[in-house]
Structure formats: structure tokens, C-alpha cells
Write a structure and sequence with these properties.
This protein is mostly helical. It is built from eight helices and three strands, in the order ααβαβαααβαα. It has one domain (15-205). Helix 5 (102-115) crosses helix 8 (189-205). The chain starts with 14 loop residues before the first helix and ends with a helix. Residues 2-8 have low confidence and may be disordered.
Length: 208
């Protein structure tokens, strides 16, 4: 799939700050277990990367360049968002961690044909909000292990959390990650949304 040029507003971020963010988020990316505490303990932006074979396993085709799969922001700390939530590392309660992570939902939807995932309500005790579907505990654990084995992270710590939303918008406009569904339009958007709808419909039809 070839990249598509998307017309967008001129960047709102200071060019120096944007250049710093882009340089950090373009790598090097490391495994989650090798993140440095001095970086992940601050707010900032993060980018998830994967190999060309993982892009293929997700059904995304050949990567058009070295862009990340997904970019996000953490206004509290990078560790609390990119590590604990996305990787499902918090103690599981009544709610599936996939229900709290749009990245996990996109990955689960694209991997279901390979790994047999099925959508369920993120809180089976109170079914609802089915677009934020969850997975069973077994499938959540499998997805978390797959992510730890396949994905790498690049971080950009930034102390001014209030500025992150605008910086994230400009970074997304530059990088066009395939799994981001907000603030950016990419050639993969329809595919990802369609795959997610299948699991959302399964969650809606779930009977326990």
C-alpha cells in the first residue's frame, strides 16, 4: 500500500520542538523491558514500531517507509500509559485492559484471524459501550505476550503536558501511523475500523 499525501493545516508546534519530537520518536526503539526509568517516568509522546513481517501478520501490507504503527501521548507518565495500559501490565480487575486501550483493540481486531480473538464487553458484569470492546482473560494475556515479543517503543519525554495535544497532532500529520484513527487520515483507516467493528459486534451479541 502506497502512502497518500493528506492535506492538513500547517504545524502549530514550534519547529524546534517538533524537530526534537520527531527525532526522538523515529528511534531507536527498544523492547518494553529496556525502557529507561528516567524517560518513562515523565509525560510525553511515544511511538510503537514493528518489523515488516509483523506489518504483514497484521494484514497492513508492506511498510511504505520506517513509520511507526501507532503514536500516542501520556499526560501523566509514559510508564503509566504506554507500558502499564497498552501492554496490559496492571493487575486485571473486572474490566479487560483491551477495553481501555485503542491500540490493543486495533491489534486484536487485525490479529483475530490468526489468533482467534473474539470481542466481549470490556466489563462483562455491566455490558455496554461495545465499541470499546474487551477480550477474555486468556486472550488478553495472549495479546500482551504478542505485543511484548513483537513491538518496540520510542519515547519523547516532555515536561509541559498541556502542550502535548498540539504536538501530537503535528507529529501524526508527519508520520501517518496506520493504527491511529483520530487526528489523521491514512490509507489503512477503513481497514482498521472495519476489523474493529467485527469485534465490537461480537461484544454486542455476547451472551456470557
Amino acid at each position: 500500500m502506497q502512502p497518500v499525501k493528506i492535506d492538513c493545516m500547517p504545524p502549530r508546534t514550534d519547529p524546534v520542538v517538533l524537530a526534537e519530537a520527531m527525532a526522538a520518536l523515529r528511534g531507536p526503539a527498544v523492547a518494553v523491558g529496556k525502557l529507561k526509568a528516567e524517560q518513562s517516568g515523565k509525560p510525553g509522546l511515544y511511538a510503537f514500531y514493528a518489523s515488516a513481517s509483523t506489518w504483514k501478520d497484521l494484514g497492513l501490507g508492506k511498510p511504505p517507509d520506517d513509520r511507526p504503527l501507532y503514536v500516542g501521548k501520556a499526560e501523566n507518565t509514559l510508564a503509566s500509559r504506554d507500558v502499564e495500559v497498552h501492554f496490559g501490565m496492571r493487575e486485571r480487575g473486572v474490566q479487560s485492559p483491551t477495553g481501555s486501550s485503542t491500540l490493543r483493540r486495533s491489534l486484536a481486531a487485525l490479529l483475530t484471524h490468526r489468533r482467534g480473538y473474539r470481542g466481549i464487553p470490556r466489563n462483562p458484569a455491566k455490558p455496554g459501550n461495545f465499541s470499546n470492546f474487551g477480550l477474555s482473560a486468556e486472550h488478553d494475556d495472549d495479546l500482551s505476550a504478542w505485543m511484548r515479543g513483537r513491538l518496540r517503543l520510542a519515547l519523547w519525554p516532555h515536561d509541559l503536558a498541556a502542550a502535548l495535544d498540539g504536538i501530537e497532532t503535528d507529529v501524526l500529520g508527519e508520520l501517518q501511523p496506520p493504527l491511529n484513527l483520530d487526528k489523521v487520515m491514512t490509507p489503512w483507516r477503513g481497514q482498521v475500523k472495519g476489523a474493529r467493528k467485527v469485534l465490537a459486534d461480537q461484544a454486542r451479541d455476547w451472551d456470557g
